[in-house]
Amino acid sequence: MEAKILKDSIAEIQRLVLNRTDSNQRKLNGIWPIDYFATPTQNQAFDLRLIITHTLGQGCAYSEIKNQDRNTFKRLLGRDVLEEEIEFAIRVSILDSLYGVLYPFSKKETKINNENPDIKNLWRSHIVLSEAQRLIGKSQFSKPMRVLNIGFVDSFVRTLREAKYEVFATDLESSIIGAEISGVTIEDGVKSHIILRNVDLVIATGMTITTNTIDRIIKECKKNNTKLLIFAETGHSFASYYLQNGVDTYISEHFPFYSFEGYSIIDICRGR
User: Fold this and answer.
1) DSSP string over the chain
2) Domain membership flag for residue 209
3) Mean pLDDT in each 10-residue stretch from start to end of the chain (272 residues)?
4) Domain end: 59, 82, 102, which one?
5) pTM assigned to the model
């Protein structure tokens, strides 16, 4: 079936959730804003806010807004707030906590790792590499395959380059735009839809959901016959929706993520 051209995927995901739940099921039982500072590699540092929510299940979204006071979150507890004006990342997190329970994707390959965060970082990068090779084949010196990473992840870029892929990267974080990291110059994320016209595969992170750029990425990949892999911490439960709407592979990383001690769970969900 031909993929639809998306206009606003989160609005559609919310419509699907509202159609299958009542207000009590959508009640917010818990919300955890986490200031997330991390250096997963020597070349990359994160300064983010992570919003975890719980309704019927658990949801997650990274937020671009870092200065909310405690009352911003406390006032939401015990209520159904999806039809109110709330921060977009909070909306995405709440929908993430509901959608996977209501519309699970059953044909998934689940991988679990209980090593230390450094090993888990390499582990998930090789999951991405393996899926890239499945989608577009192995890269060779005589015919290098081209990959665009939207939402720069240093470990992904290094692993792909070690496997002889020609890698490009974009990001919306102004502090790294123009920097050369791991042999790749980070371009402004507003150029993503132009750069992807000349690559074989796009690997985009779930942050493209909260930056509201995922729909255009899907549209441009479809137009240019470019394979699309989403690696989602944000919106990890949306696999069944996006796989029906143009994404080739949706890799979901459950919270707690690889950078925390303990078990990490990754689901590989494949579409076309």
Assistant:
1) -PPP--S-HHHHHHHHHHHH--TTTT---EEEEEEEEEEEETTEEEEEEEEEEESSSEEEEEES-----HHHHHTTTTS--TTS---HHHHHHHHHHHHHHHS---SEEEEEE-S-HHHHHHHHHHHHHHHHHHHH----SSS--EEEEES--HHHHHHHHHTT-EEEEEES-TTTTT-EETTEEEEEGGGHHHHGGG-SEEEEETHHHHTT-HHHHHHHHHHTT-EEEEEESTTTT-HHHHHTTT-SEEEEEPSS-TTSSS-EEEEEEE--
2) yes
3) 57 97 97 89 84 97 88 94 94 98 95 96 98 92 90 97 97 94 96 96 97 95 97 98 97 95 96 78
4) 102
5) 0.93
